[in-house]
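Quick one:
INPUT:
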């Protein structure tokens, strides 16, 4: 979990961000999905209480999926969640890799 230290500048607050290991896992999945032609763009938001990695099929659309990190939920349901386009939580948990498995299943296709 990465929570930046409070800013030395008055009026600004700390932000939550993905650390290097988390980004490596997320971007690894993103690269495989881009190679499969499923995803084309992404955006990262670092907010005061959460960090969000949004995945898009096209740039001008709403995100297909959001991978969210909420550190305040780490002792309850788990701080990682995958949220679908309609706002439904597809998977939530304490480990990022196990939460991302719900999206990796989309890569598995039957070969005719």
């Amino acid at each position: 979990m990465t929570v930046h230290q409070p800013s030395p500048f008055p009026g600004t607050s700390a932000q939550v961000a993905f650390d290097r290991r988390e980004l490596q896992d997320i971007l690894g999945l993103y690269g495989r999905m881009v190679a499969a032609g499923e995803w084309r763009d992404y955006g990262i938001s670092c907010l005061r209480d959460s960090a969000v990695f949004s995945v898009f099929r096209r740039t001008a659309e709403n995100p297909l999926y959001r991978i969210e990190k909420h550190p305040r939920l780490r002792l309850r349901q788990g701080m990682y969640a995958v949220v679908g386009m309609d706002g439904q939580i597809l998977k939530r948990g304490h480990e990022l890799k196990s939460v991302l498995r719900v999206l990796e299943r989309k890569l598995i296709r039957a070969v005719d």
